[in-house]
Amino acid sequence: MSHSRAAIILAAGQGTRMKSKTVKVLHSVGGRPMLDWSVDLARKSGADRIVTVYGAHSPAVKTAAEALGTQTALQDPPKGTGHAVLAAREALADVEGAAIVLYADTPLITPDTVAKVFAALEGGASVAVLGFEPEDPAAYGRLITDGEGNLDRIVEYKDASEAERAVRLVNSGVLAAPAPLLLELLGEVGNDNANGEYYLTDVVGLARARGLKAVVVKADAGEVLGVNSRGDLAEAEAAFQARMRKQAMADGVTLVAPETVFFSHDTQIARDVIVEPNVVFGPGVTIGEDAVIHAFSHLEGASVAQGASVGPYARLRPGAELGAGAKVGNFVEVKKSQLGEGAKVSHLTYIGDASIGANANIGAGTITCNYDGYDKHRTVVGEGAFIGSNTCLVAPVTVGAGAFTGTGTIVTENVEADALALARTPMTTKSGWAARFRAAKEARKAKKESL
Length: 451
Known about the structure:
- Helix content is 22%, strand content 29%.
- It is built from nine helices and 35 strands.
- The strands form six sheets. Strands 12, 14, 15, 17, 18, 20, 21, 23, 25, 27, 30, 33 and 35 form a 13-stranded parallel β-sheet that branches.
């Protein structure tokens, strides 16, 4: 079976500048490992064959790539980018269409940009290179074009002349060509350069020597930001967040203080949602129309239905599901629980492993005691129930629809619908006790001072 399009993801770098026990490409941007970004980009760009090239020092990359459904190829020892692509030669043997080289440490490239690279090949180019013009070209390889605007060659900075270093159009590293041609050209690449490596970029000059056309597709500099250090990682995160904030507001979301709101790669927010300052969305969050996320709230793995309200200072953990018009107020934590339509948990409460019925009211200080040290147990609160303040619901337990629990009650047994559950020690008043207590203390103090 032949394949029409392929992607080779280079992930064999040492990543020593990260100074981390975690392999560089497994560090996250937007709550998602950079390798995952590249694999997703390849899929969204139509690649039906994806090969991740890893190094002998990073078996974790092989494991992660295969878990994502890609093939893997080992580059050992590392001898440059051209050598890395050739490590995938066997996996590309049956690919007849275009192949694109992507990088697992460049997480912000969009499918639209990759589509332009492939379109350049479809428009008659034999090689297409993604370039950009940064504020500081620094040590990037320079893209040298001819008088007609075609790409003539790519020169690595170390090998460039002063005139070539003055060129501002630089190489992102992303390159595409028909897969058979790419492999053929790479077979001709030598290592007569400052680093003694086999450069992928040399295929441009080799293609031009055959009279083939090479072109540059320009991208925004922020989109092709590569990550080599913790500082670069922070820059990539900032660029991702800026992109998400801009898109959210364009989609009809109000961000009161955009620069203080942080998104994950898969955050979904409907129109007419209001997000107040200092809100963090972890992975797996969906927000319905007209919801309000108040300040200083943290949401992860949660869904918030239309018109619901969260916070301020609330935490929704994975499995939290808020129905339409439900309310989770300040200093409330919800985990693996469903709140029905109109249910209210207004303040100072923990709800875990629970189902709270529609229009139920959970009083301040309530706790679902869901963990016995070994297993988690479930609490069910029926529709319209009223849970008094400072109630402890000792799971597994059910409070029926319309039932009440008195303030300070410890509920250890099921409560039938429309009943009142009370579990308090009767209050005892001892008249004059406080006065006698103070007198005894003062007498003891006076005796010590007289000694």
